[in-house]
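Milestone M4 deliverable, item 7.
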Amino acid sequence: MAIARITSKGQITVPREVRERLDVKPGDALEFVLDERGQRAEVRPVRRPSIAEFRGLFKVRGVPDEPFDWAAQRRHAWDAQTSHLAPHSDKDD
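Output delivered:
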């Protein structure tokens, strides 16, 4: 059994063995769930799904499955917006 003391500011240090068993790191959140009578608390990590877990959840038509070439898209948009400013020549490249 691990024991932690509450500071005057209401803070606790989670014992190392508990942190290791829960696989929590600095910055992770812990949830305290009280029983019906408020006599016992269950402590459990708050698991937030990573963005990778959402991949493929929504399928949008017209979006390719392969990685998108953002640099080419930016160049295309830039060229489309600036083409009227000056004629393009091979010397510009």
